[in-house]
Every structure is written in structure tokens, then in C-alpha cells.
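Is this the right way to post C-alpha cells for a design question? Let me know if I should format differently. Anyway, here goes:
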């Protein structure tokens, strides 16, 4: 019996789109990975916002800094089987697929993939375990953040996921990180002039999985 609540899926989709996230339904992980690879190839080349010796540089981007010639996709949270599938698709298209050492490519990453353990329909928010630094970086320094979310993991509101957050905090002898993501990065200066992407990704895509 399915645990998917269509009303919660519809509510989450509407709220996520309201904060400028793109939401797409995909039938399987394989289709999700094909979506990500196509998205990576269709976006403008990633800008190198810091010096990265040995990296092949392309034309200047909108910020008047060089672009990265090879596309880079970071997916450190995937298990062995899923990463192997994604990596195969990336290799076929000439994309570098990272599972670790994400910090070495911090000058510019095209797409970072995270997996959500829960989502809040009321605000279009995704909860992602990010204790691992590579996972944390993949969701923060990429130009586009992609979150994989099972439809059955969508909850009505924030109190509904409090138990999941408490469990995450209590796991392990050391502190843990759980990131709550609601749309792409947004900020405003003292004159209330809004900007996108200053403290994180310029765009966010949520891929809704059936299971």
C-alpha cells in the first residue's frame, strides 16, 4: 500500500515553486540522473570564482571571470549503485562526477545533488542530512542544487518532522548537520535590494520520486 499523499505532494509542489524552485516528477532514479545530466549540459558554463591551478578555462562569464571548460557534478550522498549509474551517464557526456574531495573544486561546480530524508509541504522545504562535509558543500557551492525526494517523505508541516530532526541530532558521538533548504539562495542588502545566489545556488530543482 502506497504511503504517498497526493494532497501533500500538490501542496509541496506549489509552495516550492512559489519560492522559485523547479519541481519535476520522475519515475525512477535512472530517469532522475538522466534529468540531471541533461540539465548540466543545458546550463551556461560554470564560472570559476577563485583561482584553480591546472584547470582548463573558457571564455569570461557574466561576472567577468573565466568559465570552467569541463562540467562538474557533485553527488557525494549517493550509495555505490546509484553513483555508478550516474557516473556512467556523466562519462558518456564528458562530465566529471564527484563523490568526494568536493572542496578541491570549490572554485566552481555546475550541479550538486543531495538526497532529502523529509520535506515540509507547508513551506516547500527539504531536509537533507549534511554532516559529511562533501555533502554539505555539494548543496552550498554549486550553481544549481538538485534534491532527490521521495513523495512518501513529504509531511504537512515543520512539527511533523521534529522527530526526524531530533533523531538526526542524536545520532553519533559528535555533532551533526541537517540542512533545511527552501528554494535557491536569496538575500537582500540594507536597501532591501534582493539578490539570488550570493550565499548558495542560483537555482534549485526538486525531483520527486515515486519510491
Amino acid at each position: 500500500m502506497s504511503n504517498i499523499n497526493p494532497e501533500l505532494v500538490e501542496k509541496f509542489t506549489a509552495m516550492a515553486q512559489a519560492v522559485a524552485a523547479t519541481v519535476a516528477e520522475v519515475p525512477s532514479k535512472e530517469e532522475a540522473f538522466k534529468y540531471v545530466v541533461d540539465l548540466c549540459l543545458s546550463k551556461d558554463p560554470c564560472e570559476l570564482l577563485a583561482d584553480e591551478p591546472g584547470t582548463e578555462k573558457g571564455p569570461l562569464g557574466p561576472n567577468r571571470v573565466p568559465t570552467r571548460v569541463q562540467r562538474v557534478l557533485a553527488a557525494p550522498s549517493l550509495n555505490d549503485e546509484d553513483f555508478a549509474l550516474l557516473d556512467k551517464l556523466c562519462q558518456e557526456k564528458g562530465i566529471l562526477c564527484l563523490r568526494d574531495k568536493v572542496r578541491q573544486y570549490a572554485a566552481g561546480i555546475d550541479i550538486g545533488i543531495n538526497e532529502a530524508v523529509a520535506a515540509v509541504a507547508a513551506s516547500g522545504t527539504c531536509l537533507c542530512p549534511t554532516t559529511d562535509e562533501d555533502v554539505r558543500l555539494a548543496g552550498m557551492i554549486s550553481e544549481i542544487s538538485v534534491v532527490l525526494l521521495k513523495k512518501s517523505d513529504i509531511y504537512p508541516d515543520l512539527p511533523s518532522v521534529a522527530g526526524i530532526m531530533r533523531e538526526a541530532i542524536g545520532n553519533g558521538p559528535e555533532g551533526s548537520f541537517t540542512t533545511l533548504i527552501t528554494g535557491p539562495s536569496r538575500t537582500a542588502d540594507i536597501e532591501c535590494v534582493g539578490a539570488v545566489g550570493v550565499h548558495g545556488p542560483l537555482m534549485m530543482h526538486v525531483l520527486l520520486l515515486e519510491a
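Format looks fine. Someone answered above. Worth noting: The CA atoms of residues 57 and 68 lie 5 Å apart. The chain has a mean pLDDT of 90.
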